[in-house]
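explain this.
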Amino acid sequence: MSVAMRMSRGGSKKRPYYKIVIADVRAPRDGKFIERIGSYNPLLAKDDEKRVVLDTERAKHWLDIGAKPSDRVARFLDAAGLLKREARNNPNKGKPGEKATERVEEKAEKAAAAEEAAKEAAAAPAEEAPVEEAAAETPAEETPAAEEAAPAEVAKAEEAPAEDAAAEDKAEG
C-alpha cells in the first residue's frame, strides 16, 4: 500500500484550515486517512507558532516507513529539520535572454562613451575659457529686456488662478 503525507482541507469558504494527514494515495483529498499528524492554519501570521503544528515523532516514523510527502508538507518537514528538501526553482530560468543581454551591453557601451565625452568636455573648457567669458557678457546686456517680459508673465499667472476660482464657483452653483 502506497502512503502519502499530505494536507486535507477543512474550514469554510475563504477560511481554509488544513490537517496534515497520512493517507492512502488512492483516497480522496478530504476523505479517509490513516493518521492525523498535524495541522496548518494559513490565516495566522507567519511567525505564529500555531500556524504549523506537527508531531515530529510520528512524521519521522512515517518517513522511515516510506511515506511520500507532498510539496507543501515537505516544506514543513524541512523547516522542522526532518527532511532535506531540494529547491525546485530553475536558476537558469531567471537569467535574461540573448537580446536582453545585448541591450544591456549596448547601454553599458553608450554610458562608457558618454563618460569619455564628459571627461573630454571637462578638459576642453579650461582651454576655451576666454570664449565662454565673452559669451557670458553678451546675455548680461539683454537681461533688462528679459526682466521687463517677466512681470507680464507673472501677471498672467496671477490672473489664471482667479479665473479658475470663478469657474469653480459657477460649477458649484
